[in-house]
Write a structure and sequence with these properties.
Elements: E1 2-10, E2 13-20, H1 22-37, H2 52-83, E3 92-93, E4 97-99, E5 103-111, E6 125-132, H3 135-148, E7 151-154, E8 165-174, E9 177-190, E10 212-218, E11 232-246, H4 251-257, H5 263-296, H6 304-324, H7 331-335, H8 337-364, H9 370-381, H10 386-397, H11 400-422, E12 424-431, H12 432-443
Parallel strand pairs: 6-12
Antiparallel strand pairs: 1-2, 2-5, 3-5, 4-5, 7-11, 8-9, 8-11, 10-11
Helix pairs in contact: 1-2, 3-5, 4-5, 5-11, 6-8, 8-11, 9-11
């Protein structure tokens, strides 16, 4: 028999006091002791033949711990069911105590998801953003492509100029000795891009295929290798080839370089991609405004246990992302007050929105069916070249986690669309280029 008592602690946190009767504890304790007795080897006794009293005296603490562990595993679901609570995170267990004649007593601190009463959404007021594509946006992309698309034509007699591509062999020396990482063969280098040490590329201007020359440079003080930082170096360089940069002469040539039939097909593709970007930008800006308004109109009390757990998971994701980028994170950085405050802010915002959007979903009866998921997969497939789309479709449909993510994303989107439809909104139009500039300023 199990006794439970629930005491509210405030902010959706509860203490669940539990008593498991002495008889069940004793029965399971005896089973654990017998099991251990059959396994242990004690001096002076044959394997498995040690007296139970000796086993209890020597291993009593271990037997008790294993008994408690098994009791908790066995009754956890029943305890939670009797409490009537639905934990939002793993409950915190206080160290169980055995009270002679009264049984095993312990308590759990349980955090539950907040329940909110959704207000009248028609009372929300915010600005919807409509991002539009103008002809100038298309022209800007075409201009960038005209300038960025280039092929290189090798000329045996050409003297290298800025913007040309040279292929070189080189060996670097510091204090007359070759250094690690200072050797390269048939390395392609576009003069003027600044990929090499400052001053290196400039000394190749005027060189021709077959030339051998010595390049003198000094490594920057902040160079990534401390052994080389600030030190002078000499490079023996052999120029293998010099190629002139040739840009497309017109849009039709540009289109062919990019795999399109003609300029019209290229422009159509550019316009389609820009419209999709504008659609996403409109949704992003409008959704953000809707969520801000929803948060401002509702007071959601989060249990601290839930916030702390979400902060822990958020910091783990941040550390993993930084490590993937080659950045080491120190314990001091994770303890930084400003960093932790920002993580807390994000966690609280995300958790509150999760609660509120679930309430919106319940009110509106919002669901996502398989046809909507298939449509979203098709939309995502358009990001890939046509010959890769079938491969993408097959891959993502075989990834349950990806499908769950798409479903969650669509559910959230439909909930926010419902909020926008109910709310009192005005419209602000922005060109795609203006929106892009604003985003760049925010991220700077």
């Amino acid at each position: 028999m199990i006794e439970t008592k629930v005491t509210p602690l405030g902010a959706n946190e509860h203490r669940v006091e539990v008593i498991i009767e002495q008889q069940e504890y004793d029965r399971l304790y005896d089973q654990q002791a017998a099991k251990l007795a059959s396994q242990v080897r004690l001096p002076g006794f044959r394997p498995g033949k040690a007296p139970m009293a000796v086993v209890r005296k020597q291993f009593g603490s271990k037997i008790h711990d294993e008994t408690v562990s098994e009791l908790l595993q066995k009754h956890y679901a029943d305890i939670i069911e009797k409490s009537g609570l639905v934990p939002a995170v793993q409950p915190e267990l206080e160290v169980p105590q055995l009270v002679a004649g009264e049984g095993l007593k312990f308590s759990m601190k349980v955090a539950t998801w907040p329940e909110v009463e959704l207000g009248d959404l028609s009372g929300l007021s915010f600005t919807r953003t409509e991002v539009v594509v103008e002809p100038s946006d298309v022209e800007a992309v075409i201009d960038r492509l005209m300038n960025s698309q280039v092929r290189f034509e090798t000329d045996e007699e050409r003297s290298a100029q800025e913007g040309d591509q040279v292929h070189i062999d080189f060996v670097g020396y510091v204090d007359g000795e070759p250094f690690e990482g200072g050797r390269g063969e048939d390395v392609a280098l576009v003069l003027g891009e600044g990929r090499f040490i400052p001053g290196f590329e400039e000394q190749l201007i005027g060189s021709k295929a077959g030339d051998e020359l010595q390049v003198e440079v000094t490594f920057p003080e902040d160079y990534q290798s401390q052994q080389l930082a600030g030190r002078p170096a000499s490079f023996q360089v052999k120029v293998r080839s010099v190629a002139q940069a040739v840009h497309p002469a017109n849009e039709d040539e540009l289109a062919q370089m990019l795999g399109f039939e003609d300029a019209a097909a290229l422009r159509g593709d550019v316009e389609q991609r820009l419209k999709e970007e504008a659609r996403q930008a409109s949704l992003e800006a409008t959704f953000e405004a809707a969520l801000d308004a929803l948060l401002a109109a509702h007071d959601v009390q989060l249990p601290e246990m839930l916030v702390v757990e979400d902060m822990r998971e958020t910091m783990q994701r941040i550390v993993q992302n930084m490590k993937r980028q080659g950045v080491d994170v120190t314990p001091e950085q994770l303890r930084d007050p400003e960093f932790r405050e920002e993580v807390r802010r994000r966690s609280e915002r995300g958790l509150k929105l999760s609660v509120l959007l679930q309430a919106v979903r319940k009110e509106a009866g919002i669901e996502v069916d398989d046809a909507e998921i298939d449509a979203e997969i098709e939309r995502q497939a358009l990001r890939y070249p046509e010959e890769q789309r079938d491969q993408f479709r097959q891959w993502i449909k075989g990834q349950p986690e990806q499908i769950d993510g798409i479903r969650a994303q669509l559910l959230e989107g439909k909930c926010i669309e419902y909020i926008v439809a109910q709310a009192n909104t005005s419209v602000e139009k922005k060109t795609l280029s203006a929106w892009q500039e604003e985003r760049a300023d925010q991220q700077a």
